[in-house]
Specification:
554 residues; alpha/beta; 15 helices
Length: 554
């Protein structure tokens, strides 16, 4: 009798194992570790749901393309792939920001989304990588260590696009092996440098992704890096300590004057400048200069001159623009803008701004040929930017030599960045949504607008058939500032790709945990309109997005 009971229990357990997806997934997750493609080493572990993941998932940690590089340094493409039990046939390549060099959690997280809206929680298998190098490989180089991979030509190429080219087919094969089903829809998601990579993918690998979600892209990355030197030099003219060149009071005053002239151009006073193009025509920063020594409601001439110079963008001695100009917008008073341009909160950086430390190191070691072997201390990095010559040094972003056969510009930017067509991506049915904060201190929204304008001109006004651009008033490099910075751009992209439902306005909201919004901005929603339109007040509640309509400037 006992034997029969044991046999019955064993049979019941077998049926339970077969019927319970979790048990099956555990077995599949273990089996995947022995099913890796050639020359790819992976480890797998079944993980329970957590605060960021609503589904159990198989965590795949891998390494591939291992090699010995310049200076006998080891290089490899390391990655993380999360395979959720709640899979909807979708795959997302999460392009990471900054200088890469570490594997970020593969969540499909992007600016504007709530945790429940991350790609991993919308049925995506999500991939993340280190971009082909380890940011900790050069500890002796101090603050420049994270950029020292730029001494290796292949590492530059991997960072530019090569790691994606190598890793994407491997990751897709693992996804399809695990689920025993083909990927139905492939997406690329990224912001900042990750947004650049998404735009590069649209040009270089037009059949790789069905949909691309692009946040504040640095698609002209080496050109944008010239701005770091330009800003530091402009601020140094005001004060030897650049962190003191423009106080928080100065930038608050500047913003308030800007709002006074521009806030109501969209039909309502709400501390948001939606009519940003009209604003650039009416706002005159020169009018803020003090008239005499007794004038207090003003800024000194050298401070206004510095802000105007920064906003005009880098030029050479022939007055030729080397990057682009910038929008005057309310985000200039944000902590994010200040952190990038003037001073950070990092004591390890002597409170120097991100543009000086990370920006200076990247310009010296990654974006110029030959690279400048600038030491990784704040004094050396600041000195490098202060002495940067826009006639002699700026052309190095286009230069090659015997070691670097490709220039930084050719590696980092989309091949057709100057005159985009995206013919292959368009013909393959690809869809792209771009969003960019008007107050971005790192990559000018004007550069993205000009890219879109060129695309639209080339396609005779048909760019909106597969690309939509959304500008976000007040938003700097990511969330913050006087902005409606909570929005879901991923769901409209999914609907466009999978149901052919083209997106129109996207409702955005203020965040109560954003300490920079004003009291009247609390619980406020606004529509983000596809460029060239903007949100204009029509009638109804001042708090609701439904009271606005998308209109085009005349």
């Amino acid at each position: 009798m006992k034997m029969l009971s044991t046999l019955a229990a064993s049979i019941a357990a077998l049926f339970t194992f077969a019927a319970n997806p979790l048990y099956a997934n555990v077995a599949n997750c273990r089996a995947l570790a022995t099913n890796a493609p050639k020359n790819v080493d992976i480890k797998t572990l079944m993980m329970a749901p957590n605060k960021e993941m609503r589904s159990a998932y198989c965590l795949v940690s891998g390494v591939m393309s291992q090699r010995m590089g310049v200076g006998s340094k080891l290089y490899s493409v390391k990655f993380e792939l999360r395979l959720p039990s709640f899979w909807q046939g979708r795959f997302a390549y999460q392009f990471n920001g900054g200088n890469d060099g570490e594997v970020k959690p593969a969540l499909g997280k992007i600016t504007g989304l709530l945790g429940s809206q991350y790609a991993i929680n919308q049925g995506f298998a999500v991939l993340s990588s280190n971009g082909g190098h380890d940011s900790r490989a050069y500890p002796a180089m101090g603050l420049a260590g994270g950029a020292a991979f730029g001494h290796d030509p292949e590492a530059r190429r991997d960072y530019g696009y090569g790691a994606v080219q190598k890793l994407n087919p491997v990751a897709r094969s693992l996804v399809e092996s695990y689920y025993q089903s083909p990927v139905q829809y492939a997406y690329g998601l990224g912001q900042s440098n990750g947004g650049r990579m998404a735009m590069v993918a649209a040009s270089r690998f037009p059949e790789m992704f069905d949909g691309l979600l692009v946040g504040y892209p640095g698609f002209n990355l080496p050109k944008a890096a010239l701005q770091h030197a330009w800003d530091i030099q402009a601020l140094r003219r005001v004060n030897d300590d650049i962190g003191q060149a423009l106080s928080k009071r100065d930038l608050t005053f500047f913003t308030n004057q800007l709002l006074t002239q521009c806030d109501t151009l969209d039909g309502i006073s709400d501390d948001l400048i939606f009519a940003v193009d009209a604003c650039q025509k009416v706002f005159n920063p020169k009018a803020l200069v003090c008239k005499n020594d007794l004038d207090r409601n003003c800024l000194s001439l050298n401070k206004v001159a510095a802000l105007m110079r920064m906003h005009m963008g880098p030029h050479n001695s022939k007055n030729q623009a080397l990057y682009t100009d910038w929008v005057y917008d309310s985000g200039i008073r944000s902590n994010n803008w200040r952190m990038w341009k003037l001073e950070s909160e990092s004591s390890a950086w002597s409170n120097k701004p991100i543009s000086l430390v990370m920006g200076g190191a990247s310009l010296a070691h990654i974006f110029t040929t030959p690279y400048s072997n600038v030491p990784g201390d704040v004094y050396s990095l600041e000195n490098y930017l202060l002495n940067f010559d826009f006639d002699k040094d700026a052309p190095k972003i286009f230069a090659t030599n015997n070691q670097f056969k490709e220039s930084a510009m050719s590696i980092m930017t989309p091949p057709d960045a100057a005159k985009p067509k995206l013919t292959g991506f368009h013909n393959n049915g690809g869809k792209m949504i771009i969003f960019h904060g008007n107050s971005d201190p790192v990559f000018s929204v004007k550069d993205t607008v000009r890219w879109y304008d060129f695309l639209d001109f080339t396609l005779e006004g048909r760019a909106s058939e597969f690309v939509r651009l959304y500008r976000v008033p007040g938003m700097p490099h990511g969330q913050g500032g006087l902005s409606v910075d909570q929005f879901d751009m991923l769901q409209p992209l999914i609907s466009w790709v999978e149901r052919k439902a083209a997106p129109h306005s996207v409702v955005a909201a203020t965040r109560l945990d954003n300490p920079e919004i004003t009291a009247r901005m609390a619980d406020l929603t606004r529509p983000l309109c596809p460029y060239p339109s903007y949100a204009k007040y029509r009638q109804g509640s001042l708090q609701k997005a439904s009271s606005f309509q998308c209109v085009v400037s005349k």
